[in-house]
Amino acid sequence: MAAPDYSKYLPLSEATYYILVALDEPLHGYAIMQKVEAMSEGTVVIGPGTLYGAFSTLEKQGLIAMVKEEARRKYYALTERGREVLAEQLRRLHIMVRNGKDAAASLKKEGAA
């Protein structure tokens, strides 16, 4: 059986990647914004407009789903498809990092020669 084709979802933007990674547990929007900023060491800061636009898109794509609503807070979680797309993005990033390290090592050797 052929592997599923996730090309219509990939590559993920940095903000979308972090939103999906943050959803290793169901969270509401404000908690996601805080977690993304912490995980990214402050390099990615997502505002409410960006986050809720991303929620809409990710829900339509079937990557996340609202799982509960409590005191006007909507909690979202990854779907099975969302987990699979995130795993494929991680595989792609692993390849990129490996190739980047190889290139950096080659450049370092050339610079020392």
UniProtKB/TrEMBL annotation:
It holds the Pfam family PadR. Residues 21-88 form the Transcription regulator PadR N-terminal domain. It comes from the Bacteria. InterPro entries: Metal_resp_DNA-bind_regulator, Tscrpt_reg_PadR_N, WH-like_DNA-bd_sf, WH_DNA-bd_sf. Coiled coil: none annotated. PANTHER family: PADR-FAMILY TRANSCRIPTIONAL REGULATOR. This is PadR family transcriptional regulator. The lineage of its organism: Bacteria, Pseudomonadati, Pseudomonadota, Betaproteobacteria, Burkholderiales.
